[in-house]
User: What shape does this take?
Amino acid sequence: MPETPEPPRTGTELRRGALGTADISFFVISAAAPLTVMAGVAPVAILLGGVGAPAGYLLAGLTLAVFAIGFTTMSRHVRSGGAFYAYIARGLGKRVGIGAALLALVGYNGMEIGVYGLLGTTTADTARSLAGIDVPWLPVSLAGLALIWYGGFRSIDFGAKLLGVLLVAETGILVLLAGGVLIEGGAHGLSPGSFAPGAVLVPGTAAVLAFAFAAFTGFESTVIYRREARDPDRTIPRATYIAVAFLGLFYAFIVWTVIQAFGSEEVLTAAAEDPAGLFFTAITTYVGPWAADLMHVFIVTSVIASLLAFHNAINRYVLALAEEGVLPAALGRIHPRHGSPYLAGLAQTALGAVIVLGFALAGADPYQQLLLWVNTPGMIGLMALMLLAAIAVPVYFHRVPHAEGPWRTLVAPVTAAVLLAVAICLVVSKVGLFTMASTTVNTVLVALVPAVFAAGLVLARRLKTRRPEVYARFAEEPATATAATAPAAPAAPEGEEQPCPLPTPSSPEPASAPSTPPAPRPAR
Assistant: This one.
């Protein structure tokens, strides 16, 4: 069928109403890169946590589901384009919000740009495994930058369709593996022992939880697409819960089936001998060598899908900050035909190219340094943003008139804040498992997160004194025709901005999408 021509656009708007629940879910789940997370990271989780590893993914999913309750409730009231930073600014003040905005920019860029190193190594490994040829990583990574730029340049619904296809491919190959294991009954019969308390309550579970939380990074990006969503008050919460539920259940199920494929005792030996080949060995045994070849190919497409999802999320954060006046106004331009923030995408691609080329010129390893050193602080930064957002929810609803219940506005977000603080401590304490680097390098990578946030606080002070008009309108609600009729909000404490009045149902807002946690290289 011929492609339906896209309607002319004014050049001032994103493509409103372009994304449904499924489309937004594709962005979020694709950012998590399920196949890469499973084939690359899950074997290490099994090695560290034993047969109870699947339960770690369920526990992480439950924690993030609790966080999503307050997060999605606030999405009905705060409709600014800044997602995380807008929520934090409305609850905790503009200074903290600007610190969060800078942390979001660095965090999402870290989650994406480091993965270009993974793209180069997985493509090289796949070419070597399937064709016996050596492919240099740098040309692959640069070609990936151009491909991802084009995907972000096109309309958002084009990206959603592409991600839908890639996501079906990568999850489909994992379902094929699981089906083969279930049909054969595993190595010694199927056992639910992975979820028994004796298997879960072991010291290694802390390390599994650190990996599991990293595997969800980016699920919160649903709210970044609010302005492009159909019926966002329903679409955004649905997509968020679908993403959390799917990832939590799917991760736990797939890890459990791989344990069944080898047997509870044998899987630990297999994971220790060849962690990168664990999933490939399992699918070769239970499905066939052809399926292992497909898995190699789909790992590459899984990485591409993750890159595109994060690229689109970053572009919308840059767009929002350009509209706020914090970043240059040119970055807020919308393409007249595709309705995409194309200059933001071009700037993000240029930044990625500079960092990728810088690591290449320094002779750095694309996996152990470009991926792990850039990705890890990005992951920790996004978890810190979730913690700040969870804290902001009850503060915001305490100050603003609303009709929401205490479970959504107090109990769930406070519980989520406690659980997320524990999760961040787990990740930081196990950071060496993610980076495979020295203590000095790990200290620097972790310290980058508070340093970036502190730089944002300094930026906030400069804006307040030198550009007070920009500071005053930071994270404000979009103007609506009925704004004059909205109820007045109480004064904010400590001279901060007025909290947002209750928005009208017709108000719009955006959201975001995730990254692949660092992982051992796939089998060659």
Summary: The chain has a mean pLDDT of 83. The two ends are 40 Å apart (CA to CA). Residues 289-324 form the longest helix (36 residues). Residues 178 and 254 are 6 Å apart (CA to CA).
